[in-house]
Design a protein that fits this description.
about 325 residues; alpha/beta; Polyamine Oxidase, Chain A, domain 2; 2 domains; six-stranded mixed sheet; about 25% helix; binds flavin-adenine dinucleotide; binds 1,4-dihydronicotinamide adenine dinucleotide
Length: about 325
Protein backbone atom coordinates (compact mmCIF):
# COMPACT_ATOMS: atom_id res chain seq x y z
CA UNK A 1 0.00 0.00 0.00
CA UNK A 2 1.15 3.54 -0.73
CA UNK A 3 2.09 5.81 2.15
CA UNK A 4 -0.78 8.26 2.81
CA UNK A 5 -0.73 12.06 2.69
CA UNK A 6 -1.48 13.89 5.97
CA UNK A 7 -4.01 16.74 5.83
CA UNK A 8 -3.99 19.03 8.87
CA UNK A 9 -7.31 20.85 9.24
CA UNK A 10 -10.81 19.70 8.19
CA UNK A 11 -12.06 23.11 7.05
CA UNK A 12 -13.15 23.53 3.45
CA UNK A 13 -9.57 24.10 2.21
CA UNK A 14 -8.25 20.85 3.75
CA UNK A 15 -11.26 18.86 2.55
CA UNK A 16 -11.03 20.36 -0.93
CA UNK A 17 -7.38 19.24 -1.13
CA UNK A 18 -8.24 15.83 0.32
CA UNK A 19 -11.04 15.31 -2.22
CA UNK A 20 -8.83 16.22 -5.18
CA UNK A 21 -6.01 13.95 -3.97
CA UNK A 22 -8.35 10.98 -3.41
CA UNK A 23 -9.91 11.55 -6.85
CA UNK A 24 -6.37 11.23 -8.28
CA UNK A 25 -5.86 7.88 -6.53
CA UNK A 26 -3.92 9.08 -3.46
CA UNK A 27 -4.57 8.01 0.13
CA UNK A 28 -5.16 10.76 2.69
CA UNK A 29 -5.46 10.96 6.46
CA UNK A 30 -7.17 14.04 7.97
CA UNK A 31 -6.32 15.49 11.40
CA UNK A 32 -8.67 18.01 13.03
CA UNK A 33 -8.48 19.64 16.43
CA UNK A 34 -12.25 20.18 16.78
CA UNK A 35 -14.90 17.52 17.33
CA UNK A 36 -16.04 17.62 13.70
CA UNK A 37 -15.23 19.08 10.29
CA UNK A 38 -16.14 22.59 9.10
CA UNK A 39 -13.73 25.04 10.76
CA UNK A 40 -15.08 28.53 10.10
CA UNK A 41 -18.02 26.99 8.21
CA UNK A 42 -19.08 25.03 11.28
CA UNK A 43 -22.58 25.42 12.72
CA UNK A 44 -23.34 25.48 16.41
CA UNK A 45 -26.07 23.17 17.68
CA UNK A 46 -27.95 25.03 20.39
CA UNK A 47 -31.29 25.23 22.23
CA UNK A 48 -32.35 27.62 19.45
CA UNK A 49 -31.54 25.06 16.70
CA UNK A 50 -28.38 24.99 14.56
CA UNK A 51 -26.84 28.41 14.04
CA UNK A 52 -24.30 29.53 11.45
CA UNK A 53 -21.91 31.53 13.62
CA UNK A 54 -19.09 31.69 11.06
CA UNK A 55 -19.53 31.89 7.28
CA UNK A 56 -23.00 33.25 6.56
CA UNK A 57 -23.36 32.44 2.87
CA UNK A 58 -21.08 32.15 -0.10
CA UNK A 59 -20.88 33.29 -3.67
CA UNK A 60 -19.52 31.18 -6.54
CA UNK A 61 -17.62 33.10 -9.24
CA UNK A 62 -14.95 30.64 -10.43
CA UNK A 63 -16.17 27.95 -12.83
CA UNK A 64 -14.32 25.21 -10.89
CA UNK A 65 -16.12 26.17 -7.71
CA UNK A 66 -19.41 26.31 -9.62
CA UNK A 67 -18.81 22.64 -10.52
CA UNK A 68 -18.38 21.85 -6.81
CA UNK A 69 -21.60 23.76 -6.12
CA UNK A 70 -23.42 21.60 -8.68
CA UNK A 71 -22.15 18.49 -6.92
CA UNK A 72 -23.52 19.80 -3.60
CA UNK A 73 -26.82 20.53 -5.35
CA UNK A 74 -26.97 16.92 -6.56
CA UNK A 75 -26.30 15.81 -2.96
CA UNK A 76 -29.08 18.09 -1.69
CA UNK A 77 -26.91 19.86 0.88
CA UNK A 78 -26.93 23.39 -0.55
CA UNK A 79 -29.69 25.94 -1.14
CA UNK A 80 -30.04 29.45 -2.46
CA UNK A 81 -30.61 32.12 0.19
CA UNK A 82 -32.51 35.16 -1.06
CA UNK A 83 -32.59 37.49 1.94
CA UNK A 84 -34.36 40.83 1.99
CA UNK A 85 -31.14 42.86 2.12
CA UNK A 86 -30.58 46.17 3.81
CA UNK A 87 -27.61 48.36 4.53
CA UNK A 88 -26.98 50.65 7.47
CA UNK A 89 -24.76 53.74 7.08
CA UNK A 90 -24.36 56.48 9.66
CA UNK A 91 -27.27 54.93 11.57
CA UNK A 92 -29.57 55.13 8.50
CA UNK A 93 -31.16 51.86 7.49
CA UNK A 94 -32.24 51.40 3.86
CA UNK A 95 -33.20 48.50 1.59
CA UNK A 96 -30.26 47.35 -0.54
CA UNK A 97 -31.43 44.69 -2.98
CA UNK A 98 -29.01 43.30 -5.56
CA UNK A 99 -28.68 40.63 -8.22
CA UNK A 100 -26.02 38.50 -6.47
CA UNK A 101 -26.82 34.80 -6.01
CA UNK A 102 -25.94 33.63 -2.47
CA UNK A 103 -25.69 30.04 -1.28
CA UNK A 104 -25.87 28.32 2.11
CA UNK A 105 -25.46 24.76 3.36
CA UNK A 106 -28.79 23.02 4.08
CA UNK A 107 -30.03 22.44 6.73
CA UNK A 108 -26.96 24.15 8.18
CA UNK A 109 -23.68 25.50 6.81
CA UNK A 110 -21.71 22.54 8.14
CA UNK A 111 -23.71 20.20 5.86
CA UNK A 112 -21.27 21.08 3.07
CA UNK A 113 -18.08 20.01 4.81
CA UNK A 114 -19.94 16.94 6.18
CA UNK A 115 -20.70 16.00 2.57
CA UNK A 116 -17.07 16.56 1.58
CA UNK A 117 -15.47 14.48 4.32
CA UNK A 118 -16.86 11.38 2.56
CA UNK A 119 -15.25 8.33 4.02
CA UNK A 120 -11.72 9.74 4.32
CA UNK A 121 -9.93 8.43 7.38
CA UNK A 122 -10.10 11.35 9.84
CA UNK A 123 -9.15 11.85 13.47
CA UNK A 124 -11.02 14.55 15.44
CA UNK A 125 -10.15 16.26 18.74
CA UNK A 126 -6.54 15.88 17.64
CA UNK A 127 -4.48 19.07 17.69
CA UNK A 128 -1.26 18.67 15.75
CA UNK A 129 1.61 20.37 17.56
CA UNK A 130 4.62 19.32 15.49
CA UNK A 131 5.33 18.31 11.92
CA UNK A 132 8.70 16.65 11.45
CA UNK A 133 10.52 14.69 8.82
CA UNK A 134 12.26 11.38 9.49
CA UNK A 135 14.75 9.87 7.04
CA UNK A 136 12.17 9.32 4.27
CA UNK A 137 8.78 10.29 5.57
CA UNK A 138 6.81 12.84 7.55
CA UNK A 139 5.42 12.34 11.04
CA UNK A 140 3.03 14.37 13.19
CA UNK A 141 2.95 14.82 16.93
CA UNK A 142 -0.32 15.76 18.65
CA UNK A 143 -1.12 17.66 21.86
CA UNK A 144 -1.54 14.36 23.76
CA UNK A 145 2.02 13.39 22.82
CA UNK A 146 0.93 10.68 20.34
CA UNK A 147 2.82 10.42 17.08
CA UNK A 148 1.23 9.68 13.70
CA UNK A 149 2.83 8.56 10.47
CA UNK A 150 4.55 7.82 8.23
CA UNK A 151 3.21 10.20 5.56
CA UNK A 152 4.63 10.85 2.11
CA UNK A 153 3.53 14.54 2.13
CA UNK A 154 1.85 16.98 4.48
CA UNK A 155 -0.88 19.46 3.49
CA UNK A 156 -1.30 22.07 6.19
CA UNK A 157 -4.77 23.72 5.87
CA UNK A 158 -5.07 25.89 8.98
CA UNK A 159 -5.20 29.70 9.53
CA UNK A 160 -1.86 31.44 8.88
CA UNK A 161 -0.75 32.02 12.51
CA UNK A 162 -1.46 28.37 13.33
CA UNK A 163 0.34 27.24 10.17
CA UNK A 164 3.40 29.33 11.08
CA UNK A 165 3.64 27.51 14.41
CA UNK A 166 3.64 24.11 12.68
CA UNK A 167 6.20 24.83 10.00
CA UNK A 168 9.55 24.79 11.79
CA UNK A 169 10.67 22.14 9.27
CA UNK A 170 10.29 24.77 6.51
CA UNK A 171 11.45 28.12 7.93
CA UNK A 172 10.85 30.05 4.67
CA UNK A 173 7.21 28.95 4.47
CA UNK A 174 6.82 29.60 8.21
CA UNK A 175 8.06 33.17 7.69
CA UNK A 176 5.52 33.79 4.90
CA UNK A 177 2.66 32.46 7.06
CA UNK A 178 3.87 34.44 10.08
CA UNK A 179 3.67 37.61 7.98
CA UNK A 180 -0.08 37.17 7.34
CA UNK A 181 -2.20 39.05 9.83
CA UNK A 182 -5.61 37.59 10.58
CA UNK A 183 -8.33 39.65 12.26
CA UNK A 184 -10.80 38.41 14.87
CA UNK A 185 -14.60 38.50 14.77
CA UNK A 186 -16.95 38.37 17.74
CA UNK A 187 -20.20 36.61 16.72
CA UNK A 188 -23.41 36.76 18.75
CA UNK A 189 -26.61 34.75 18.26
CA UNK A 190 -29.89 35.99 19.69
CA UNK A 191 -33.27 34.20 19.79
CA UNK A 192 -36.58 35.96 20.37
CA UNK A 193 -39.87 34.30 21.38
CA UNK A 194 -41.88 36.64 19.15
CA UNK A 195 -40.68 37.52 15.62
CA UNK A 196 -39.21 41.02 15.43
CA UNK A 197 -41.39 43.43 13.47
CA UNK A 198 -39.04 43.91 10.49
CA UNK A 199 -38.70 42.62 6.91
CA UNK A 200 -34.92 42.71 7.17
CA UNK A 201 -33.18 39.35 6.73
CA UNK A 202 -29.60 40.40 6.07
CA UNK A 203 -27.81 43.71 6.55
CA UNK A 204 -24.36 45.09 5.62
CA UNK A 205 -23.47 47.59 8.34
CA UNK A 206 -21.08 50.55 8.49
CA UNK A 207 -20.36 53.13 11.22
CA UNK A 208 -21.30 50.72 14.04
CA UNK A 209 -19.63 48.06 16.20
CA UNK A 210 -21.55 45.68 13.91
CA UNK A 211 -20.42 44.64 10.44
CA UNK A 212 -23.23 42.26 9.48
CA UNK A 213 -26.49 40.86 10.75
CA UNK A 214 -28.66 38.03 9.50
CA UNK A 215 -31.97 36.50 10.36
CA UNK A 216 -30.67 32.95 10.60
CA UNK A 217 -34.14 31.43 10.38
CA UNK A 218 -34.67 33.02 6.96
CA UNK A 219 -32.14 30.61 5.42
CA UNK A 220 -33.54 27.50 3.73
CA UNK A 221 -34.08 24.41 5.87
CA UNK A 222 -33.52 26.06 9.26
CA UNK A 223 -35.90 25.03 12.00
CA UNK A 224 -36.27 26.94 15.22
CA UNK A 225 -39.14 27.92 17.49
CA UNK A 226 -37.38 31.24 18.01
CA UNK A 227 -36.72 34.18 15.69
CA UNK A 228 -32.94 33.64 15.53
CA UNK A 229 -30.39 36.28 14.50
CA UNK A 230 -26.62 36.23 14.05
CA UNK A 231 -24.63 39.45 14.54
CA UNK A 232 -20.97 39.94 13.58
CA UNK A 233 -18.85 42.70 15.05
CA UNK A 234 -16.31 44.55 12.92
CA UNK A 235 -12.67 43.44 13.02
CA UNK A 236 -11.80 46.67 14.79
CA UNK A 237 -14.44 46.33 17.52
CA UNK A 238 -13.56 42.65 17.95
CA UNK A 239 -9.85 43.46 18.33
CA UNK A 240 -10.54 46.22 20.86
CA UNK A 241 -12.82 43.92 22.90
CA UNK A 242 -10.97 40.69 22.36
CA UNK A 243 -10.88 39.73 26.08
CA UNK A 244 -14.35 40.95 27.04
CA UNK A 245 -16.57 38.36 28.74
CA UNK A 246 -19.15 36.62 26.54
CA UNK A 247 -21.98 38.18 28.59
CA UNK A 248 -20.61 41.70 28.04
CA UNK A 249 -20.17 41.05 24.30
CA UNK A 250 -23.81 39.91 24.04
CA UNK A 251 -24.93 43.02 25.92
CA UNK A 252 -22.92 45.44 23.74
CA UNK A 253 -23.90 43.88 20.40
CA UNK A 254 -27.55 43.43 21.41
CA UNK A 255 -27.51 47.18 22.19
CA UNK A 256 -25.98 48.05 18.80
CA UNK A 257 -28.53 45.78 17.07
CA UNK A 258 -31.47 47.41 18.89
CA UNK A 259 -30.14 50.83 17.91
CA UNK A 260 -29.98 50.14 14.18
CA UNK A 261 -32.79 47.68 13.43
CA UNK A 262 -35.60 50.24 13.60
CA UNK A 263 -38.13 48.17 15.55
CA UNK A 264 -38.68 47.19 19.18
CA UNK A 265 -36.08 44.63 20.34
CA UNK A 266 -37.00 42.87 23.60
CA UNK A 267 -34.56 40.95 25.79
CA UNK A 268 -33.69 37.74 23.93
CA UNK A 269 -34.79 34.42 25.41
CA UNK A 270 -31.61 32.85 23.98
CA UNK A 271 -28.14 34.28 23.46
CA UNK A 272 -24.60 33.12 22.96
CA UNK A 273 -21.28 34.64 21.90
CA UNK A 274 -18.43 33.04 19.99
CA UNK A 275 -14.98 34.51 19.43
CA UNK A 276 -13.25 33.72 16.14
CA UNK A 277 -9.62 34.59 16.81
CA UNK A 278 -8.49 34.10 13.21
CA UNK A 279 -11.64 35.04 11.31
CA UNK A 280 -10.28 36.72 8.19
CA UNK A 281 -6.97 37.70 6.63
CA UNK A 282 -6.38 41.46 6.94
CA UNK A 283 -5.66 41.49 3.18
CA UNK A 284 -6.09 39.01 0.34
CA UNK A 285 -3.22 37.33 -1.53
CA UNK A 286 -2.77 35.67 -4.87
CA UNK A 287 -0.58 32.77 -3.84
CA UNK A 288 -3.14 30.03 -4.54
CA UNK A 289 -1.18 27.74 -2.25
CA UNK A 290 2.34 27.69 -0.81
CA UNK A 291 4.71 24.78 -1.18
CA UNK A 292 8.15 23.39 -0.63
CA UNK A 293 7.73 20.66 -3.21
CA UNK A 294 11.17 19.11 -2.60
CA UNK A 295 10.33 18.68 1.07
CA UNK A 296 6.78 17.52 0.26
CA UNK A 297 5.09 20.22 2.35
CA UNK A 298 2.02 22.10 1.03
CA UNK A 299 0.00 24.90 2.60
CA UNK A 300 -3.49 26.09 1.74
CA UNK A 301 -6.32 28.07 3.26
CA UNK A 302 -8.51 31.09 2.60
CA UNK A 303 -5.60 33.38 3.47
CA UNK A 304 -3.65 32.19 0.40
CA UNK A 305 -6.37 33.77 -1.79
CA UNK A 306 -9.47 35.80 -0.91
CA UNK A 307 -10.61 35.28 2.69
CA UNK A 308 -13.85 33.65 1.56
CA UNK A 309 -15.34 30.19 1.27
CA UNK A 310 -14.66 30.09 -2.47
CA UNK A 311 -11.04 31.21 -1.97
CA UNK A 312 -10.46 28.51 0.66
CA UNK A 313 -11.86 25.81 -1.63
CA UNK A 314 -9.77 27.00 -4.59
CA UNK A 315 -6.65 27.11 -2.43
CA UNK A 316 -7.19 23.45 -1.44
CA UNK A 317 -7.50 22.52 -5.12
CA UNK A 318 -4.29 24.38 -5.93
CA UNK A 319 -2.33 22.63 -3.15
CA UNK A 320 -3.52 19.26 -4.47
CA UNK A 321 -2.71 20.21 -8.06
CA UNK A 322 0.83 21.23 -7.17
CA UNK A 323 1.40 18.08 -5.12
CA UNK A 324 0.14 15.82 -7.91
CA UNK A 325 2.19 17.72 -10.50
CA UNK A 326 5.34 17.04 -8.47
CA UNK A 327 4.55 13.30 -8.34
CA UNK A 328 4.51 12.97 -12.13
P1 LIG B 1 -10.78 26.93 8.51
O1 LIG B 1 -12.22 26.83 8.24
O2 LIG B 1 -10.33 27.81 9.63
O3 LIG B 1 -10.24 25.46 8.74
C1 LIG B 1 -9.04 25.16 9.41
C2 LIG B 1 -9.26 23.92 10.29
O4 LIG B 1 -8.01 23.56 10.87
C3 LIG B 1 -10.22 24.20 11.46
O5 LIG B 1 -11.24 23.22 11.46
C4 LIG B 1 -9.33 24.12 12.69
O6 LIG B 1 -10.01 23.59 13.83
C5 LIG B 1 -8.23 23.17 12.22
N1 LIG B 1 -6.94 23.32 12.91
C6 LIG B 1 -6.28 24.47 13.20
N2 LIG B 1 -5.10 24.22 13.81
C7 LIG B 1 -5.02 22.86 13.89
C8 LIG B 1 -4.04 21.96 14.43
N3 LIG B 1 -2.91 22.42 14.99
N4 LIG B 1 -4.29 20.63 14.36
C9 LIG B 1 -5.44 20.14 13.79
N5 LIG B 1 -6.39 20.94 13.27
C10 LIG B 1 -6.18 22.28 13.32
N6 LIG B 1 -16.74 33.53 3.87
C11 LIG B 1 -17.66 33.71 2.90
O7 LIG B 1 -17.41 33.34 1.74
N7 LIG B 1 -18.88 34.27 3.18
C12 LIG B 1 -19.22 34.67 4.43
O8 LIG B 1 -20.33 35.14 4.66
C13 LIG B 1 -18.25 34.54 5.46
N8 LIG B 1 -18.51 34.97 6.70
C14 LIG B 1 -17.63 34.71 7.70
C15 LIG B 1 -17.95 35.09 8.99
C16 LIG B 1 -17.10 34.78 10.06
C17 LIG B 1 -17.45 35.23 11.45
C18 LIG B 1 -15.92 34.04 9.80
C19 LIG B 1 -15.03 33.65 10.94
C20 LIG B 1 -15.59 33.69 8.51
C21 LIG B 1 -16.43 34.02 7.45
N9 LIG B 1 -16.12 33.71 6.13
C22 LIG B 1 -17.02 33.91 5.14
C23 LIG B 1 -14.82 33.14 5.78
C24 LIG B 1 -14.88 31.60 5.58
O9 LIG B 1 -15.55 31.03 6.67
C25 LIG B 1 -13.45 31.11 5.48
O10 LIG B 1 -12.80 31.76 4.42
C26 LIG B 1 -13.33 29.60 5.22
O11 LIG B 1 -14.29 28.85 5.94
C27 LIG B 1 -11.91 29.19 5.61
O12 LIG B 1 -11.70 27.83 5.37
P2 LIG B 1 -10.27 27.18 5.66
O13 LIG B 1 -10.41 25.72 5.41
O14 LIG B 1 -9.22 27.94 4.96
O15 LIG B 1 -9.99 27.43 7.22
P1 LIG C 1 -20.95 39.59 -1.43
O1 LIG C 1 -20.70 39.86 -2.85
O2 LIG C 1 -22.36 39.41 -0.96
O3 LIG C 1 -20.35 40.76 -0.51
C1 LIG C 1 -19.13 41.43 -0.68
C2 LIG C 1 -19.22 42.81 -0.03
O4 LIG C 1 -19.95 43.69 -0.89
C3 LIG C 1 -19.98 42.86 1.30
O5 LIG C 1 -19.12 42.69 2.41
C4 LIG C 1 -20.58 44.25 1.29
O6 LIG C 1 -19.64 45.18 1.77
C5 LIG C 1 -20.81 44.53 -0.17
N1 LIG C 1 -22.20 44.24 -0.58
C6 LIG C 1 -22.61 43.15 -1.29
N2 LIG C 1 -23.93 43.23 -1.54
C7 LIG C 1 -24.37 44.37 -0.96
C8 LIG C 1 -25.65 44.98 -0.88
N3 LIG C 1 -26.75 44.42 -1.41
N4 LIG C 1 -25.74 46.16 -0.21
C9 LIG C 1 -24.65 46.73 0.33
N5 LIG C 1 -23.42 46.19 0.28
C10 LIG C 1 -23.27 45.03 -0.35
O7 LIG C 1 -20.18 38.26 -0.95
P2 LIG C 1 -18.67 37.75 -1.08
O8 LIG C 1 -17.85 38.58 -2.00
O9 LIG C 1 -18.75 36.31 -1.33
O10 LIG C 1 -18.11 38.05 0.38
C11 LIG C 1 -18.42 37.25 1.47
C12 LIG C 1 -18.87 37.97 2.67
O11 LIG C 1 -18.26 37.31 3.78
C13 LIG C 1 -18.51 39.43 2.79
O12 LIG C 1 -19.63 40.12 3.26
C14 LIG C 1 -17.42 39.44 3.85
O13 LIG C 1 -17.43 40.66 4.61
C15 LIG C 1 -17.84 38.29 4.72
N6 LIG C 1 -16.75 37.74 5.51
C16 LIG C 1 -16.79 37.95 6.84
C17 LIG C 1 -15.78 37.51 7.66
C18 LIG C 1 -15.82 37.79 9.13
O14 LIG C 1 -14.93 37.39 9.82
N7 LIG C 1 -16.82 38.49 9.63
C19 LIG C 1 -14.64 36.75 7.13
C20 LIG C 1 -14.68 36.58 5.70
C21 LIG C 1 -15.72 37.05 4.93
Amino acid sequence: MTVPIAIIGAGIAGLSAAGALVAAGQRVHVFEKSKGPGGRMASKRSDAGSLDLGAQYFTARDRRFVAQLQQWQAQGCVGEWTPTLYQSRGGQLSPSPDEQTRWVGVPRMSALTRAMIDDFPAVYSCRVTEVFRGKHYWHLLDAEGASHGPFSHVVCAVPAPQAAALLSAAPKLAAVAAGVKMDPTWAVALGFDMPLDTRLQGCFVQDSPLDWLARDRSKPGRESDLDTWVLHATSEWSRQHIDLSREAVVEHLHGAFAELIGCAVPAPSFSLAHRWLYARPASSHEWGALADADLGLYICGDWCLSGRVEGAWLSGQEAARRLLEHLE
